[in-house]
Inverse folding.
């Protein structure tokens, strides 16, 4: 019995369609009658659309299917396509490389995005909006810093990092404060406005007094 392992079979040119679609297209390629080839490939394209419903979201999804027929056949199929036939060169063209910044990140714990935002803030003229932006970025930097060091961080450290990342262009105003350490207003439990909080010991003692008074009654 002949072994039929995937390692010994022809390479799948478009794995998302699977082996059966490739076999069907290879079968159509070898049909000698052109009219019959055109009939059979219509059925194969219908199957391809059913197997890949996500292509229906594309405006030219049927055009994509017919292009994929050419790719799967290794451009050997001779049919009357309703669309212009793609060339092998156009399909295998490599995309243009995306230019990436080669300059080093000045502080890895903050990342490049924070570094870019600080550059934008540094270019802005001094005003109340800029002061607010500095406080927002400083608060966010504190959160990122504490991911690396979970103990605490002083606001002076954050402000020095802002000055360093901006190349000395940003000096945090003296009236800007973000606090220090892990404690933050966003982590505290909410309470009713105007309600005075009582120490836990007083709350328990009050419950005991009420219980004793109820027993006496």
């Amino acid at each position: 019995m002949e072994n039929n392992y995937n390692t010994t079979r022809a390479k799948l040119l478009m794995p998302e369609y699977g082996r059966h679609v490739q076999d069907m297209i290879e079968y159509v390629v070898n049909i000698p009658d052109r009219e019959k080839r055109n009939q059979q490939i219509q059925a194969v394209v219908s199957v391809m659309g059913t197997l890949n419903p996500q292509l229906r979201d594309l405006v030219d999804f049927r055009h994509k299917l017919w292009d994929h027929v050419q790719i799967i056949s290794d451009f050997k199929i001779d049919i009357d396509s309703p669309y212009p036939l793609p060339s092998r060169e156009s399909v295998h063209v490599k995309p243009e490389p995306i230019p990436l910044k080669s300059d080093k990140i000045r502080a890895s714990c903050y990342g490049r995005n924070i570094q870019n935002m600080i550059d934008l803030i540094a270019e802005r003229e001094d005003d109340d909006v800029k002061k607010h932006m500095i406080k927002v970025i400083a608060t966010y930097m504190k959160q990122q810093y504490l991911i690396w060091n979970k103990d605490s961080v002083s606001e002076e450290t954050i402000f020095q990092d802002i000055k360093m990342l901006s190349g000395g262009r940003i000096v945090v105003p003296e009236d800007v404060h973000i606090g220090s350490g892990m404690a933050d207003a966003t982590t505290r439990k909410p309470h009713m406005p105007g309600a005075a909080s009582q120490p836990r010991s007083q709350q328990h003692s009050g419950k005991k007094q009420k219980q004793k008074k109820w027993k006496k009654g």
Summary: The chain is about 50% helix and 0% strand. Helices lie at 18-29, 34-51, 61-72, 88-91, 111-122, 128-148, 155-165, 200-216.
